[in-house]
Amino acid sequence: MSTAPIRVVVWGENRHEQVEPSVAERYPDGMHGAIAKGVGEWLGDKAAITTHTLDEPEHGLTSDVLDETDVLVWWGHAAHGEVADEVVERVHRHVLAGMGLVVLHSGHWSKIFTKLMGTTCTLRWRSEHDRELVWTVNPQHPIARGIPNPIVIPEQEMYGEYFDVPTPDELIFISGFTGGEVFRSGMTYRRGFGRIFYFSPGDQDFPVYHHPDVNHVIANGIEWARPDRERETPTLLRYDTDDFFNGQGYRGAFER
Questions:
Q1: Per-residue buried b or exposed e for 99-127, using 16+ beta carbons within 10 Å of the residue's own CB
Q2: pLDDT of 5 strictly over 90
Q3: Secondary-structure class of domain 6-249 per CATH
Q4: Fewer CB within 10 Å: C terminus or N terminus of the chain?
């Protein structure tokens, strides 16, 4: 694995902060800014972190930006539909080619996450100042390294089952709430050559991204999702008999 800093982009919708004074007060540098600062305190010089937001040209996720991104962290909620389809396709291609993706909280309903999952990604929810306990169910996983069990979040939006996502490759955290609900709150997937970590704690109405343990989990997720190979899109190649190494380009059904 490379010892160079992990090139991280924290992407935030940055809409609640513009129209809701309480959110702007809670997150004066934007939620994306709070996430970037929080994970930066854990990663230190192991990461080079930048931020981009929805209202930038191409949402800040140009080809040049993604070419230089090892891990993309995604937070969105109120404006999923405003994310341009061509940008979603671009991010999707980069994930399949090996870029890491960390999806947070309401990002479960983002275009990019639903595209990668192939399901509705719907769930139960309630925003009533619930206490959340985040329990570690896979303590051997690197994302759980150094994380207290449980993480206690005094105020949070409730997310509950059924969560319509594919069976995860690895289930790391399960949350419980004051109403008795449970939720698969931390899980991993692999799509193509890319690694994906979904982590649910974090809402604009509560100061969850000022919680050091939450930021520690996200930082661990970034380290885990970092690519461990040169970026390469999986391709369909034709091989002659006994030629194990020199595949020939093939125009498949999707290109006809």
A1: bbbbbbbbbbbbbbbbbbbeeebebeeee
A2: yes
A3: alpha beta
A4: C
